[in-house]
Amino acid sequence: MTTPLIDLDRVSRVYRMGPVEVPALADVSLQIQTGEFVAIVGPSGSGKSTMMNILGCLDRPTHGSYHLAGAPVAELDDDSLARLRSRTIGFVFQSYNLLPRTSALENVATPLLYQGVRRAERLRRARATLERLGLGDRVDHEPTELSGGQQQRVAIARALVTEPALILADEPTGNLDSHAGADVTALLRELHRTGRTVVLITHDIDVAATADRQIHLLDGRLAA
Amino acid sequence: MSALELLRLALSRLRTNRLRAALTMLGVIIGVASVVALVGVGQGTTSRITDDLASLGTNLLTISPTEQNQDGSTSLTLDDVTAIADVPGVAGVAPEVSTSQEVTAFDESTTTTIVGTTSAYADVRAYTVWQGTTLTPVSVERELRVAVLGASVADDLGLSEAAIGSEISIGGIGFTVIGILQPKGGSGFQNPDDQVLVPVAAVQKYFVGGDSVRSIGVSVDPSADMDTTNARITALLRERHDLAATDDDDFEIFDQTQLLAAASSISGTLTLLLGGIASISLVVGGIGIMNIMLVSVRERTREIGIRKAIGARALDILAQFLVEALTLSLLGGLLGVALGLGVSALIAQVAGWSFAFTPTTLIAAVMSSLLVGVVFGVWPARQAARLDPIAALRYE
Fold first, then answer.
1. With bands split at pLDDT 50, 70 and 90, how would you rate the model's confidence at B50?
2. Could you please report the per-residue DSSP string of B5-33?
3. CA atoms lying within 13 Å on the CB side of residue B342
4. I need a surface site. Which of B293, B334, B346, B357 has the fewest CB within 10 A?
5. pLDDT (0 to 100) of residue B352
């Protein structure tokens, strides 16, 4: 068996609030293979956001080890984490998080900027990705000129443009109506079908049901 | 990221908020413009003063008597002049006996200084001839009634090249015009073009009497030392005037270069002072940039979080914000130089002040605006770079 893409080994994340220690994740061990479509489900306060930050290399575990594509996340410095995010992860956020006053094309091209790709190549790849997601006629639109569903599609295009090993989607349907939400989950499924690893973090059981495997989080622990 | 990418990012950002960018730059624009204009007027004044003084002769020693007898005669004589000519280091010596007389040509007349001197005068005082000739050795020796007009006098009398050879009257005595001098330009102290040169003997004979001279101009060979030559002339004159070792000099020697040095030192200090005052406004402009950049970092916290999440390193964020500040300050600096030059040209036109701009000044002005950008841009940029991506993403 090959190395799992995501390998959490007894990971804990403890926040310090003054003298009090608040454990947000406790003893979580988890493996996700390349090509899987996994949903991490849990109610609010279950440690989903912390899980998302750890998986997304925005944060480091307090205890335990996390290997992403073989890289020991807990031991890397900020710049190495940035490079790992840039090469390995595509983020999709609940609130889209597109750069304001910036065209869809520039938004999608931005991750490539931080990979040092030249501008002409960046724009070419961004345009191709937008076209693949059916947004070929929206490339020059700024976020405010797009509907919520379209903004989330642009965000998914931005996550995809670097051809990352992992698509990490945090409540991607949370701000969308049911129709646009179904559209986004269908798109994620399709990405999975074309071979991409997708991790979906949500509180919504129905959304989680679109994934092949569900991992339940409760009070910072994995539930059976 | 390359500098070009950073510049493109900064420019596109500034384009989205033009009014704010313009107002932010305004501080630097005004700062740099005032530095450029004030240093320009300082340097202009300096070079005008030094040019004026230099036009009087930079290697010039002027010997004048400390006392004048009741009949107007002095201790300096034409024989002193001849003797000084042999002192090593002396390039030329010209006696000067001046008097103020009314000069008339046809129906125009003016009152001006009549300088009795020799053919050496033009060289010693650094005049060049515009028309005709200056005093010739022959005309001086034969005590001819010939006159060489200063440019202003010729102008006042309405005389030009056609007047060479015509008669004018100086104090009621007829003289032949043999030349007109090239103008030297207005001086702050006295107009060097407002005088008429005639042979020294003519002045002594017709106007002042006696055979003493009022002053002696000595031009020193450029390769010779002014002070050494000065000392030699002092020794020579003391000996010729039979002064005992305990006696004071009965003449004084004035060194033009000392005046020149003093004047340029004063106006140099003035320039520095003006530039210093103006650069305070540049600093204020820099604080304006820092203020706006800090506001901008706060407003764009979420953007910074997004950029970090999708792969920007701290250095990328630092560079982005620093280049934004630098772009503002550099653009402000360039516009400020343009404005400074424009305002100076306007003032020069309207008020007639003289401005001087060296490339060094302009480059220094632009460089200092860049420096302002770095100094006041680094802190906001560091704030941006240090933001925690998780907190920044959650920031509303």
1. confident
2. HHHHHHHHHHHHTHHHHHHHHHHHHHHHH
3. 10
4. B346
5. 82
| pLDDT over 70, % of chain A | 99
Tell me the pLDDT tens digit for each residue of A128-142: 999 999 999 999 999
Burial of B353 (0-12, 13-18, 19+ CB in 10 A): middle
Q: Is B311 close to A158, i.e. CB distance below 8 A?
A: no
Cβ(B199)–Cβ(B135) under 8 Å? yes
**Which residues of B fall within a CB distance of 8 Å from A99?**
303, 306-307
Out of A100, A110, A119, closest to residue B310 by CB: A110
- Helix, strand or coil, per DSSP, at residue B380: helix
Beta bridge partners, A167, equal A90, A198
The distance from CA B354 to its chain's CA centroid, rounded to whole angstroms, is 9
Q: How many residues does chain A have?
A: 224
Separation of alpha carbons A161 and A158, rounded Å:
5
Instruction: Work out the angle between the directed axes of helices B314-351 and B359-386 (0-180°, nearest 10).
Output: 150
- pLDDT tens per residue across span B74-89: 888 888 998 999 999 8
Residue A59 pLDDT greater than 60, yes or no:
yes
Matching residue, tokens 């945090």 = A170
Span A187-213, mean pLDDT? 94
Strand A6-17 to A166-170 pairing: unpaired
User: Would strands B173-181 and A71-72 be described as parallel, antiparallel, or unpaired?
Assistant: unpaired
Q: How far apart are CA B202 and CA B174, in angstroms?
A: 11
DSSP code for A57: T
Nearest chain A Cα distance for residue B50, angstroms: 56
Alpha carbon distances (Å) from A27 to A40, A56, A199, B289: 16, 18, 20, 49
Question: A119-132 and A104-113 helices cross at what angle (nearest 10)?
Answer: 130
CB of A60 within 8 Å of any CB in chain B?
no
Query: Does residue B307 sit in helix, strand or coil?
Result: helix
Chain mean position to CA B206: 40
Residue A39 has pLDDT above 90, yes or no: yes
Query: Which residues, at least 6 apart from B101, have a Cβ–Cβ distance to it below 8 Å?
Result: B111, B112, B114, B170, B171, B207
- Report the residue from B1, B307, B314 with minimal CB separation from A79: B314
For residue B379, the one-letter residue type is W
- The contact set of B with A (CB < 8 A) is 1, 5, 8, 16, 302-303, 305-316, 389-390, 393
Burial of A210 (0-12, 13-18, 19+ CB in 10 A): buried
As a whole number of angstroms, the distance between CA B65 and CA B30 comes to: 54
Q: State pLDDT tens for residues B247-274.
A: 888 899 988 788 888 888 888 898 889 8
Gap between the Cα atoms of A195 and A205, Å rounded: 24
CA end-to-end span of chain A, whole Å?
24
Q: Report the pLDDT averaged over residues B45-67.
A: 81
Distance (Å, rounded) from C-alpha B239 to C-alpha B256?
24
The model's pTM is 0.75
Q: What is the pLDDT of residues B128-139, one digit of tens each?
A: 899 889 999 988
Q: Which residue has the tokens 């960046």?
A: A122
